[in-house]
Amino acid sequence: MKRKENSAVYLAIAALSVSVAACVLDYQAEYNVLGKMAETETVSETESITKAATETKEEAKETTAEKETEKDAKTEAETEEVQTETSELASEADVSTRPEYDPEQYADTSQCDVDALPEIKEINNVKISNEEAITAIQDDMVIKGIYSDATAASKGDIINLTYTVKDKATGETLSDVEDEDCTVGNNLFPDDVDARFVGKKEEDTIDAVYTYPSSYEDSQYAGKTCAFHIVINELRGMQLTDDIVPALTDDAEQTVDGLLSYTKKLLAYKQQKTLALEAVGKLCEKVKLLSYPEDTLAYDYQKKVIQIYHDADVEDASLEALDTYAVSVGYADAKELLTEIQEATKSNLGEEIKVLALVKKYGLWLDDDTLDRRLLQTVPNYSNPNDYYTDYSKYQARYLVAREDLAGKIVEMAKEGGG
User: DSSP letter at 286?
Assistant: First the structure.
C-alpha cells in the first residue's frame, strides 16, 4: 500500500507549516529545530521552504495597502515557482529523503549485557502444559469453523440454544433467548441445569426447575424458583480427533499427538519471544545516548508539522489557524502542540538510535535485499518495500524489523547459555 500525495500540495503545505512554526520561534529558543532546518542541506525541500517561510514572515509586517498589493503579487510568483520546482523536488523524495546516520556514533552500548538479564533464565524455564495447548487448538477450531463429529454433547462442546426462564410462582418470563451459543460446562446456567446438557443431541429439549439462593447477585433471579425450557438447535464437537487435524494444519500434521507437540513448541516460542521483547526494552535502558543526528531530527520534526497541516485541513497557514486547530484537539494553544511534537520526535528518534546501535553491536544489521524481504513479511499491507521507505524511511523499517531480530537473538543466546 502506498499513500499517494500531490507533490505541489505537499510542498505548499510544507512551506506554510514552516512559516507558521517560524512565527512561534520566540518560545522555541531552547531547541530551535526549525532554525537548524534552515542550515541543513540534506533535506531537499528545506532551502526553498525556509525562504518561503522567511518571506511570509516579513510580508506579515506590511500594513499599507500598497505593500499588501505587492505581497499578493509576490505570493503569486512564489506559488508559480513552487509549482515549477514540484517535479524536480518530488523526484528527490525517495528513500534517501530522510538523512541516514551511523547509530554507533550516537549511542554507547558498552554497558549492555544480555547474559545479565533476568529474562534469560525465564526464557529457558518456559513450559507449556497439555491443557494450554488443547485450549489454543480449540480456539483455532472456533476461528476456522472446524469441528469434530459429535452425536451427543460432551463437556467442552459448543451448543446453540433457544431457551426461556420463567418465575415458577408467577409465570413471569425472566429470559427469552434465541440462537445463543454456550459451552457445555462453562456455567452459563446453574450447575444442576448445565449438567443435563451432557449426552444430549440436536433438537433435544431440557425442562428443569432450579431455585436460586436469596444471596444470588442478580436480583431478578435471587430467591426465585425458576422453570427452564431449553431446545438444543446445533451441536459442534470440540473434542480433538485425528480426523480434523489435517484440516486444521493444512496437512502439516496428521495426528492429535503431532498437533499437540507442534502447538506446545509454538506457544513456548511465543512466550519466549514475549520475554525476549521485554528484555530488548531493558537492554535499551542500558544504552547511553550521546547525541542526536541533527539533520535527521530536523527532518522528522518537519514531517510531523506537515502532518499536522494535513490533519487540520486548514487553508490559512496563520498562527491563529494553528491555535484554533490545537485547541480543537485538546491543547492550550499552538505552542503546547509544537512543544509536544518536538519532545515526541526526539524521544522516538532516541529509541530508534538505541535499537539500531544494539543491532550493530550484535551483528544483526541487514543488507538491503534481506531488509526488503523481512519488511514485507512484517507489514503485509505493503507489496513494495520502496513504498514503505517513501511513506516512512529505510531506517524506520530497520527499527521495525530490528526489535524482532534482537528478541530472536536473545532467545538464541538464552538457549546457548542454558539459563
Answer: T
CB 162 within 8 A of CB 176: no
**Rounded alpha-carbon distances, angstroms, from residue 335 to 129, 339, 342, 347:** 55, 6, 11, 18
Report the distance separating Cα 292 and Cα 31, nearest Å.
12
Residues found in the chain? 419
H or E segment and range at residue 381:
none
The per-residue pLDDT for range 211-220, each reduced to its tens digit, is: 999 999 999 9
Q: Is the separation of the CB atoms in 10 and 91 below 8 Å? A: no
Reported pTM: 0.61
Output the furthest CA–CA distance in the chain (Å, rounded): 94
Do 153 and 161 form a contact (C-beta atoms < 8 A)? no
Find out whether 52 and 78 touch, Cβ atoms under 8 Å. yes
β-pair type (158-167, 225-236)? antiparallel
What is the spatial distance between Cα 411 and Cα 271, in angstroms, rounded to a whole number? 10
pLDDT band per the 50, 70, 90 thresholds, residue 45:
very low
* Per-residue CA distances from 414 to 117, 126, 273, 372, 408 (Å): 10, 12, 11, 28, 10
CA quadruple 202, 207, 211, 215: dihedral positive or negative?
A: positive
